[in-house]
Every structure is written in C-alpha cells, then in structure tokens.
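Progress against Task 2.4 (sequence-to-structure conversion) is shown through the following example record, which the project officer requested during the mid-term review.
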Amino acid sequence: MNINIDQANRTAVERMMAARPVLKDIRPAREVIPGMHDKLLLHAGPPIAWDKASGPLRGAVIGALIFEGLATDEATAEALITSGEVQLEPCHEHDAVGPMAGIISPSMMVYVVQNVTHGNVAYSNLNEGYGKVLRYGAYSPDVLAKLRWMNDVMGPMLAEALAMMPDDLDIRALLAEALHMGDEGHNRNKAGSILYTAKLAPLLVQASGSMADKSAVLKFLGENALSVLNPVMAGCKAMAHAGHGVEGSTIMTIMARNGTELGIKVSGLGGRWFTGPVGQPDGLYFPGFTAEDANGDIGDSTITETAGIGAFAMASAPAIVTFISGTPELAINTTLSMYEITTAEHTAFTIPALGFRGTPVGVDIRKVVELGVRPQINTGIAHKNAGVGQVGAGLVLPPMNVFEDALVAWAEMYL
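Structure tokens generated for the chain above:
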C-alpha cells in the first residue's frame, strides 16, 4: 500500500488544530450521549473487567449506582455489576471523557461541546472540586449530597445561563487566553475557571431560581479552580477526535487510564485500543498521605496532552510545580522535550515564555518509539482504596509498550 505517512499526519493534526469546540448546552447524559441507557455507566480509560478494577474506580461505580437509586450499598452495587445487569463501558467509546474514575451515569448532567468546524460532539460531566469526591472513588453521604445539588440546582442553572448567551462559549478561545495567564489546561485551570465564571456570572443572576441558589452556584464556581476542566476536556476530545480516522496516520488521538491500564488509539488504526500497565505518579502528597497510599494513574484527562496542552504546555504554567513537585525549569524543559515527539506547533495555543511558540501537538508514535521519549502526563493522585479520595498530584509517564504495539499493528496494516 502506497501511504504518505507525513502527509497523513499533517492532515490529522491540521484537522485537530482547525477544530473549534464550543460549549452548547448542559443536559442529562441519557438525553444526549450516544448509546447511553439506564443500565450503563461510563468510566475513564480503556475497557476493564470488574475484577481488575482499581479501588477508586470501584468506589466511583458504587457511588454512581447509589446516586442513581439502583443500589443502596457496596454489596448491592457489586451484585449489579457482576450479574451483568449494569454495564461498564469507556467514556471514549461514547464520545465522552471524565476526569479520574470518569464515571458518568444516566441522570448526571453533562456538558455538550460541539466542534463547529467539523460537526462532531463531545461530552463531559460536571466538576466536583478537589479532595473527597466521586471521581476519586469517594461515595459517602456528603459526596452524594454535593452531586445531587450539582445535578438538581447548579446544572440546570448553568444550562439556562448558557441558553441566554448571545454567542456560544468558545472553549478554544478561552483556553488560548488561559495559557497566557498561567494555566496549562490539565492540573492548573485557575485562570480558565475565572474566565469561565466571569462569562457566566451576569447570566446566572438572570436565571430562574432563588438568590440563595444563585449565590451558592457562583460561590462554588468561584472557589473551584477546576470548574472549567471538564468542558476543557470535552473540548480537547472534540479536537482530538477531528484528527481520528485518517488513513495511514500514526498520530495518537486518545490516551486514557482506568487506574489499572493505560490505553491509546491511533488515527490510522480505527477503534483498536493498545494497552499497558499504568504508572505510579511521582509527586506531592496532601498532609497525612504518602506514596504508599497512591493508586496507579487514572483518568481521561490525558486528552489534554493528546490535544497539545496539559503537560505539553507546562512552560506556560511554571507555577504548576508547586502542586505537582519539581522546578520552573522542569516545566519549561518538559514542553521543549515534547516538541521532539510531535508533528506540529499549535496555531491556536501559544506560550509567551517561549516567544509565543505554539504548543507541541500531534504525538507521532513513530517518534516515541524511535527516540524513546514518552508523552509526559501531569495528574492528580487518587488513594488506592475506594472511598478516600484525592491524596496528591504529580507526574507520570505512559508505558512504552502501547506505542510499540501500535506501531507493529500499523506496519501489519499498511506495509
């Protein structure tokens, strides 16, 4: 087969960069996510069997089933899963993404983000903030109470505010501005969350509901430096997916972790997952916790690195090292090293500290294998046991075998 790999890769990455994701709506998952039904839970990362699921993923599944009213405790939740009455499938198989455990259940409100350039749509759930939350495997009554408030009060109010916006909320433009204000779009979203809240605040006060509810929503958004992470992840999913399906391309379009395995997909290799064991993050821990408490890497949030931000844009956010460990020089050097394994410099996302150079985008699996340089990930760290929550944040690398296996599969298909 006569394949021009470099041209295929340029096509894939140009589509990723041309994609313009905008936030359209917030709706219940069962109403908008393709294939969603009342006995389905979506999770982060590649497919996984229940007996291989990590503690935080198990905790999040248990919590979601209680949230949905399908279970009352751990035992009844596990019985639903092991009997096959409730199914578990990856978010990515349904055009969705979720941070950490990534659980999206049928009644959860989700962001609806459309790539208006190419027409594809992506989804993500609402962000709960830091600490003891469902996405880190916690499911105590206070965690579930917060989720219900977010679903019943905040979600509908945000949807109403979005409907009043004269123009759609442009996620790509918001991200570009946030990168110039010290964010990197994955673990540091302080500027982006402020921009997001500022755009919605005048409309939230006009929405229906009590002043007390409006005040509570604005307070929650203002105090949660991760408020914008989930629509950003959906935006990155929409951008990355625009580059998928290009014949002969060796560009990575998905990188995701379920707490046990990390999986990638490649533009020219269809829907096939290539998986390997997750790494153990190296980072800073909250008081009272150590590396002994940590679960392996988990979450769909590496869609940010896939789209050219996150750890790839750390040079724009040197202060991130106060949260994940390291030095400002490490942040800059991480971005510089990612140029070695990518295809282009992003036309929309630029880094002031590097002379407004575009962020590295379009991981080429050939370069990863040839140079032995793996995509850097910065991430939150979940406790290894269900029900505890977040214990820190740090840096981690994907297993090399996923890139090697994908390259072999590419050769078998095209050579």
